[in-house]
Amino acid sequence: QVQLVESGGGSVQAGGSLRLSCAASGYTYSTYFMGWFRQTPGKEREGVAHINRAGDYTYYADSVKGRFTISRDNAKNTLYLQMNSLKPEDTAMYYCAAGRRSGFSLSATIYDYWGQGTQVTVSS
Fold first, then answer.
1. φ and ψ at 35, to 5 degrees?
2. Distance CA 44, CA 38 (A)
């Protein structure tokens, strides 16, 4: 049974930092690429960052480039998202996802498995 469990969310002031983690189990972690998405009420889920299977290729949404860093530890079956210089507009529920399909790196359609999400709130 595939499980993706996010943690590390919380409330922080603008300019602060948070590190999200996503623990994966129930499948061969290193054979899937991974991504982070975020969603606010009434809006579509937005792709934030993508990392390939080996962890040597990453891709970011323009809105977070230079502030967020995605990484993975295949020995620990864990995905990370380091978020620095947070802004109020980064407030959202953040989800990790695992996929194997072809397509645009930040498209939700190429991901097969999803976590339940962790809330990030940034106050001004």
1. -150, 160
2. 9
Closest to 6 (Cα-Cα) out of 76, 94, 82, 105: 94
The rounded distance, in Å, linking the Cα atoms of 96 and 38 is 9
Q: In angstroms, what is the C-alpha Rg of the chain?
A: 13
Is residue 121 classed as helix, strand or coil in its secondary structure?
strand
The pLDDT score that the predictor gives to residue 26 is 92
- What's the CA gap between 91 and 116, in Å, rounded? 16
Q: What's the pLDDT tens digit per position in 28-74?
A: 999 999 999 999 999 999 999 999 999 999 999 999 999 999 999 99
Q: Which of 43, 123, 38, 37 shows the shortest CA–CA distance to 86?
A: 123
- CB burial readout 65-97, b (16+ within 10 A) else e: eeebbbebeeeebbbbbebeebeeebbbbbbbb
pLDDT band at 103 (very low <50, low <70, confident <90, very high): confident
Q: Report whether 59 contacts 50 (CB < 8 A).
A: yes
